[in-house]
Amino acid sequence: MEHIYLDNAATTPVKPEVLDAMIPYFTQNFGNPSSVYKIAQINKKAVDESRETIAKALGAQTNEIFFTSGGTEADNWAIKGIAEAHKAKGNHIITTKIEHHAVLHTCEFLEKHGYEVTYLDVNEDGLIDLNELESAIKDTTILISVMYANNEIGTIQPIAEIGAIAKKHNVYFHTDAVQAVGQVKIDVKEQNIDLLSLSGHKINGPKGIGILYIRRGLKLENLIHGGAQERGRRAGTENVAGIVGLAKAMELTYTNFDAKIEKLTKLRDKLIDGLLATIPYAKLNGHRTMRLPNNANISVEFVEGESLLLLLDMNGIAASSGSACTSGSLDPSHVLLALGLPHEKAHGSIRFTFGEMNTEEQVDFVLEKMPQIVDRMRQMSPLYEDFLKQKQDK
Ligand code: PLP
Fold this sequence. Notes:
Oligomer: single chain
CATH topology of the largest domain: Aspartate Aminotransferase, domain 2
Radius of gyration: 22 Å
Largest sheet: 7 strands, mixed
CATH class of the largest domain: Alpha Beta
Bound molecules: pyridoxal-5'-phosphate
Distance between the termini: 45 Å
Number of domains: 2
Structural class: alpha/beta
Helix content: 40-55%
Shape: globular
């Protein structure tokens, strides 16, 4: 049976070119970049060059890129770092109800330590209201943290407009771009982004490596204390192989970018249109056009997302019923609830996310299997039976 992997928002496979670039840094180039001898200096050079590649892809300067252990650390650092460094100015942070837990739980932690957090609502498409954002800003506001694109529903926020509002009010702007990188073009200067988080494993790079972009001159408290690595701002011996792999992945994800986006968008739209046409009482979650080119998230009434996932898995299809971090718990997704979906619809939601390896034939296969599986599940659903009876009686 062919395995069809449609969960690229959870993680992606490392590209062979990325792995090839990394391997020498596990074996012959094993030196510590902080050491002075030649074999270590090769590693220092590799780290510097990687930083340059990543900076270029984001429209940043090389000295504005700081390596972290991934998106979670970058989010924690941005938010806790601003909170600590700017507490003399104020204690208020603005974020949204649909952030990743790396942001939400960090904000909740800060609330326990005297900070005040405003969690903005989103509309039914998952977009924040810019007027609401602007009116939430007060004298004590020190940070706006709004994700670039949502990991569950794929909605892309108006980042440049948010950046402009933050700049106008002299408030720092952090964006979690973990899902957006490689799917949209980013320019931190044009978009007035002060801090940006990204992660290697969502762009066919390795796990456990990411970056925080920190605008030059911005005062940010350190999160990880220790040695003087990363110019004294993030301690710990550099993950050289990971850094090299991240830079290679970054370079590749923006090579032939337009053709890649066209392909992903075509696969996405074929799946969305096909599912909505063949499955009654199904609905797309997230904005129809302001969404990641690789994300299709559908609510299917009268089915349970987790069971749907298992049946898809039995057919060789890997998808997700929420974000990887929330699966395993039976609570409905906080993102879907924020869109206004009732619990039962939030429970019946499924996310397919494409990667460069996916094909149209694979979409055809899902389009053949999904309606059959949903139909079978509904046959066994007392809720669906009741619904049909009520419909007949009307
Ligand atoms: N932010 C978003 C939007 C994500 O989707 C994820 C991963 O799922 C993260 C942060 C966390 O990144 P990492 O897995 O590199 O810690």
